[in-house]
Structure formats: C-alpha cells, structure tokens
Amino acid sequence: MQKSNAIVITAGYLDSSSGKTAHGLIRGSDRFNIIGVIDPKHPGKDAGEVLDGKKRNIPVYATVEEFTKSSKEQAKYCIIGVATKGGVIPDSLRAILRDALIHGYGLVNGLHEYISEIPELADFARSRGLEIIDVRKPKKFKDLHFWSGKIKNVHCPKIAVLGTDCALGKRTTTRFLTEAMKKAGYRAEMIYTGQTGWMQGAKYGFVFDSTLNDFISGEMEHAIVQCWEEAKPDIIFIEGQSSLRNPSGPAGAEWIVSGDANAVVLQHHPLRKQYKDMEYYPAYIPELKDEIALIKTYGAPTVAITVNTAKMTSQQGKDYVTEKEKELGIPVVMPLEDGMDRLVAIFKDMIDKSIAQV
Q1: How many whole angstroms separate alpha carbon 112 and alpha carbon 149?
Q2: Spacing of C-alpha 311 from chain mean position
Q3: In 158-294, where do the E strands start and end?
Q4: pLDDT tens digits along 65-104
Q5: Is the model's pLDDT at 358 over the cut of 80?
Q6: Residue 123 forms beta bridges with which residues?
Q7: At 266, phi and psi to the nearest 5?
Q8: Which residue ranges form the domains of the chain, and what is each CATH number?
Q9: What percent of the chain has pLDDT over 70?
C-alpha cells in the first residue's frame, strides 16, 4: 500500500479521549504517513510524547498555516482526528477544514456528518480539485451483504476483542495483538469495524455504526470470509465496538454469533464505573467475572483481559493485574505498558489445534 503524507487535526483535544482517532494514527498507520498534528494547546511538542510519553518525531503545530510554512515535508491530506458530540462538524472545526482546503490539502473525515454534504466545503474542494473522503459514508445497497453461513468455511481461530464500555482502546489492543502474532511468525489479520481502523490501513472490515442494521451480521461475516479466502491467515482478530450492555449502543453479540468468534479478549478500565458520557443514567459497568459469564452464554470463552490504565499509577495497574489474574485464572495484561507477548502462547495453541493446520 502506497502511504500518503497527512496531518491530523486535534483542535485542542490531543491529550483527551476525544482524540482517539488521532491517537491511533500517531501510534501507527499503514495507509497514511502522519507528519504533523494541528493542536493549539501543544505547539512545538512531539505528538507521541503528548500522547504516551514516547517520542515519534511527529511535531505539533498550532495551525494548518504554521505547518505549511514550517514543515519541510508536504502533506496530501488533512485528517479529522477527534470525535465530536453527536459526530457533527461544529463551526470551529469547519473553519480549520476550510483553512486546510485553502492550503491545498484533501480532507479525510470519520465523523457522522459528511464533509461532502457541507456545500461551502464540498464546493470549494471541488473547485480546487481536492479530494474529500467521508469514511463513514455507507455502502450502496447493491454492495451490502446478508449473512449466509459461509463463516463456517473459515477454519482459522477468530478472536473478538470486546470491551466493557466504548472508548477503551479496543482498536489499539486489536492492532497490538495482530502485530504481536506477526512478530511471532504467524500470518495474522485484523478486521476493522470503525473508521480509524480503515485510516490505519487495515485491509478487511466495515464501519459498524454506519451499516444498516439488517446487514451488520452479513457485513461482519463477509469481511471475515473475504479475509480468509484472500489472505489465508493463521489467526484473525476482530475489533470490537461499544459493549454488550452499554444502553446507548449495545454491541458484541454479532462478533460471537454472526462472526463465529472462537474466543474473546476483553478490554476493561478499572476506574470507570459508569458508561462513558452517561453518568446521568443509572447503568453501571459490571464486574469482569459477570461480563465473562455473559460472553460465555453467547458461546465464546474469554481467554485474556486487557487493561486500560488511564489515570492509574503504575503500581495501581500492577496490583490490579495481580488481583484479577488470581481471581479469574486467565492472563491479565496492560497493552501499552506490557505489550502482548504474554498472550502469544494462547493463540499459538489455538492455531495448532485449528482445522487449518490439520
């Protein structure tokens, strides 16, 4: 895949969970080469250091104009790297996008509102011959798939990376697992189910929350089957969305039932007691053992827990890992701190036992 140079707009949210699209792109993309981040709160800093303390040689600029004047490299695209309330593009962000067009950059948008349907931006882009990519735009009806049962022709292990809430890092964990298995010498593939996964260059997948409900199970199956037929992987990891019990958008059953997942890796944030942005509603994130039991009723065992340690001290994270491993009897790891090497043996065993190896 030929990578295009791009800058990412975070508009003051680089250091918050609202910048999770940018966070994924900063950590790595096979589709775009990220050469700058636009954020007025952190100009002059390295985006990687702002994100997690790791220098990645991605400078932060206050404005698009500053990037254009200062950078020795040229960018083709400007990517929206933040999640906004309701997925709309507010006036403040529209102004930055127009500035990007003025400076000659195409736009990549993963929000629910489409730039191609905002006349003042779409018309201006068209007049300048600049590309607009609305990642969340649904497929045409003729390109959608109903569930067919072909999933049973996929004979490698399929691992669903689910979570106890949204915005926990499921995509990052899925990518880390895929990379760990590749490093260990296996053919591993990731099925993306959100816009950032596409931006990071995952080849197989679909955008879950832009797909008509009747076709979600079919699109899930189609992505996995296509991956199996074309790439013949040893193992497939499927990026999760939301959680089984999140009232604002429950999800997860399709991964196990329609995607025929053989096992689950469950992502959790110990400090989060209520669902993100729903503190006003009396719904509480369940204990891990209860979520594992629910997942089992859908037909898949949970083989590992991955922990988001945001706002936890290093010692708190280590203590939690020790406590939960003892309680649950399965590996518990902190992806950002520990990596995924501890889990490779689990999946190696599953691969060895899979029909594909017989």
Answers
A1: 31
A2: 20
A3: 158-163, 188-192, 204-205, 235-239, 263-268
A4: 999 999 999 999 999 999 998 899 999 999 999 999 999 9
A5: no
A6: none
A7: -110, 120
A8: 4-134 (3.40.50.720), 143-357 (3.40.50.300)
A9: 99
